[in-house]
Write a structure and sequence with these properties.
63% helix; globular; binds zinc ion
Length: 289
């Protein structure tokens, strides 16, 4: 083995070790630091974009499953699907803002539900809204797997249809699922308040969701007690239904641990079938049995 070959092997090994042990803790700590320093929404968006690029770079160079590397065509198709879902999400949010949220805000004011602990340190507030949001999301997610009509109507099957996962899959949802995904946040906001920490909460949720879908070797031992790691979430994407009916917390695993749906096991194949359906079939999923 030449000196050059052994040096690049050492470099790859070292990078794998750093990513395995440190990537998720560093990104979580950075999200909480931004919360602590009251960073602006623009800074959070910049941070999420940088984190996504770094994760994608590692997925290309040191993937956990090399067979999950996407071709340029597969990436382009996924990007179009994600863009479509994002546009639908924005539209649905506007619809909710003008109707349901307006009504809920009026109710909240009338009932004086002013219980948010705004005197707490910012990091504690972020962790509180993070776990409260995930509590509601956990039950929606569990219900969507349990009840056939919700599984179909929400199009959640489209999110599960992918055979190759990567960080980008965190936002690969059916456009109609926005109707359901936006609601938990509104319910938590209505009951607890805490919208002021919204921007800080976005970073923590986004980086954890991207990592939970990432094709990287990550350590679950420490952060995995509270945060969802990709070992747990990829298991939720398993093709085996009994395995898929576990680990419903997309970013916070603590509710699965408490409500008995936590599972720590290896995953063979992901998806809902041996072959990934085409995007047309995915878009039609809410309308077909
Ligand atoms: Zn699911």
């Amino acid at each position: 083995m030449s000196v050059e070959t052994s040096f690049s092997a050492l470099l790859i090994h070292g990078t794998r070790q750093i990513v395995y042990w440190a990537l998720q803790p560093i990104l979580i700590a950075a999200s909480l630091y931004l919360a602590h320093t009251n960073a602006s929404l623009d800074t959070h968006i910049l941070f999420i974009t940088a984190a996504f690029c770094i994760i994608t770079l590692f997925e290309i160079t040191i993937p956990a499953r090399p067979e999950w590397r996407k071709s340029a065509g597969e990436t382009a198709a996924l990007l179009v699907f994600v863009f479509l879902a994002g546009a639908a999400y924005a539209l649905i949010e506007t619809l909710y803002e003008a109707s349901l949220f307006k009504w809920m805000a009026g109710l909240s004011e009338a009932w004086r539900l002013d219980i948010w602990p705004s005197q707490w340190p910012k990091i504690a507030q972020v962790l509180l809204i993070f776990s409260a949001f995930e509590f509601v999301n956990y039950w929606y997610h569990r219900a969507s797997h349990r009840w056939g009509w919700l599984w179909r109507l929400s199009g959640h099957s489209a999110h599960h249809a992918f055979k190759k996962l990567s960080g980008l899959n965190a936002v690969a949802n059916h456009p109609l699922e926005g109707f359901f995904l936006i609601l938990p946040r509104a319910i938590v906001g209505f009951l607890l308040g805490g919208e002021a920490v919204g921007a800080a909460f976005i970073s923590l949720t986004a980086v954890t969701a991207i990592l939970a879908h990432s094709n990287l070797h990550l350590n679950s031992a420490l952060v995995g007690w509270f945060f969802t790691t990709n070992r747990y979430h990829i298991h939720h994407h398993s093709q085996v239904i009994s395995e898929s009916n576990t680990n419903y917390g997309c970013v916070c695993i603590v509710w699965d641990r408490l409500f008995g749906t936590f599972k720590d096991a290896d995953t063979k194949d992901t998806g809902i079938d041996d072959v990934q359906p085409d995007y047309r079939a995915m878009l039609l999923m809410p309308f077909k049995r």
